[in-house]
Design brief:
The complex is a heterodimer of chains A (111) and B (115). Chain A is mostly beta strands and 111 residues long. Chain A has no helices and eleven strands. Helix content of chain A is 0%, strand content 54%. In chain B, strands 2, 4, 5, 6, 9, 10 and 11 form a seven-stranded mixed sheet that branches. Classes of the chains: A mainly beta (111), B mainly beta (115). At the A-B interface, strand 4, strand 5 and strand 9 of A face strand 4, strand 5 and strand 10 of B.
């Protein structure tokens, strides 16, 4: 079992819809959770970080964390074609500063 | 403009040759990292450094070495390149846990092809 798992996709949604991206992790001691966006041929770009159970909102993005169920999700409201990218979930599993990345979910927003 | 730079942008290298990928950050971050990204495998940590003068091994360190002579620079060296080291290499930096959010920021990457 991978330490951080994501559905590879592609997840296809129409423009204006809510895109829901999910990530599960194996280590219950995980402390910090991050979502990165990566456009094809580009480097990962940090979108959100979340550290506590519940929701964290930033503009059109909402990160949701449920430590008991060991999942973290990213909701993108009013999806735009420019949101089409691969979204990487990353987890810091202990007191170290090393991140474990999932393989990413490819999102396609149809105009 | 604060950020991370990497050089070269891309490189084609003959197997057996030595290669150093350069990474420089000006965000005064203590921690720096090298990842490789391969299709279907995601980002995998090669080596890291939490402060100048110290380095550590990540998930896939074999065939690579790093040094951290100062805060800003973190070069990655392939002593004798092999085709399996064909990949996209990303350098990243962050603060340390307890020094803020510990978010990692990435450089633009180096695309390396070993023939």
């Amino acid at each position: 079992q991978k330490e951080v798992e994501q559905n590879s996709g592609p997840l296809s949604v129409p423009e204006g819809a809510i895109a829901s991206l999910n990530c599960t992790y194996s280590d219950r001691g995980s402390q910090s959770f991050f979502w990165y966006r990566q456009y094809s041929g580009k480097s990962p770009e940090l979108i959100m970080s979340i550290y506590s159970n519940g929701d964290k909102e930033d503009g059109r993005f909402t990160a949701q964390l449920n430590k008991a169920s060991q999942y973290v999700s990213l909701l993108i409201r009013d999806s735009q074609p420019s949101d089409s990218a691969t979204y990487l979930c990353a987890v810091r599993m202990d007191s170290s500063y090393k991140l474990i990345f999932g393989s990413g979910t490819r999102l396609l927003v149809r105009p | 403009i604060a950020g991370i730079t990497q050089a070269p942008t891309s490189q084609i290298l003959a197997a057996g040759r030595r290669m150093t990928l350069r990474c420089t950050q000006d965000m005064r971050h203590n921690a720096m990292y090298w990842y490789r990204q391969d299709l279907g495998l995601g980002l995998r940590l090669i080596h890291y450094s939490n402060t100048a003068g110290t380095t550590g091994k990540g998930e896939v360190p074999d065939g690579y070495s790093v040094s951290r002579a100062n805060t800003d620079d973190f070069p990655l060296t392939l002593a004798s390149a092999v085709p399996s080291q064909t990949s996209v290499y990303f350098c990243a930096s962050s603060t340390l846990p307890g020094q803020g959010d510990n978010e990692q920021f990435f450089g633009p990457g180096t695309r390396l092809t070993v023939l």
